[in-house]
Design brief:
26% strand, six-stranded antiparallel sheet, alpha+beta, single chain, two-stranded parallel ribbon, 3 helices
């Protein structure tokens, strides 16, 4: 759908597990990260989720609000090809003024002794330096777009992460 329509037009919800269509069991975090790349909502009975999951729901709603303008008004970039089998799915949102970016990654496959994967970002201000907000690490945009950022090696499939970069 995102090939032809804006992200703001795509229905995207956190569903119950196991998923009613695939039978797949994924974490609440993974389901929320993916759902934040659309209209975002919950399609499950919150009366039967654990107290820990209810706290996660609150956190994810806050994150969705925090990134809403970025995901719905910013530029959307596919960083992996959804038509090819890959170790990860990755996509990015960049604000129209290029002052911030949100990187989203979901691990699709894990391997023993896997090599470090470098993911190249797109659409940044090539002369700027960006600060990854959780770690505080600084990266030149040219390095992020040409060499890429090393992704952590996950220990399970279908784990998601978000990295928020702000121009320094």
């Amino acid at each position: 759908t995102s090939f032809g329509f804006p992200i703001s037009s795509m229905g995207s919800h956190v569903s119950a597990v196991p998923n009613h269509q695939t039978g797949r069991i994924t974490s609440m975090n993974t389901r929320a990260v993916v759902a934040m790349s659309g209209t975002f909502g919950y399609e499950l009975d919150l009366n039967i989720v654990s107290d820990e999951e209810k706290e996660e729901v609150k956190k994810h709603i806050e994150l969705c609000k925090k990134y809403w303008d970025l995901t719905h008004e910013g530029d959307y970039f596919r960083l992996s090809n959804p038509m090819e089998l890959s170790e990860y799915a990755a996509w990015e949102f960049v604000s129209t003024d290029k002052s911030e970016a949100l990187l989203n990654v979901v691990t699709l496959q894990t391997h023993a002794n896997a090599q470090v994967c470098f993911l190249r970002l797109k659409g940044l201000d090539e002369n700027a330096v960006y600060v990854e907000q959780e770690s505080g690490k600084e990266y030149p945009a040219s390095a992020l777009m040409n060499a890429g950022i090393p992704l952590p090696r996950p220990n399970a499939e279908y784990l998601a992460m978000q990295m928020h970069f702000v121009r320094k």
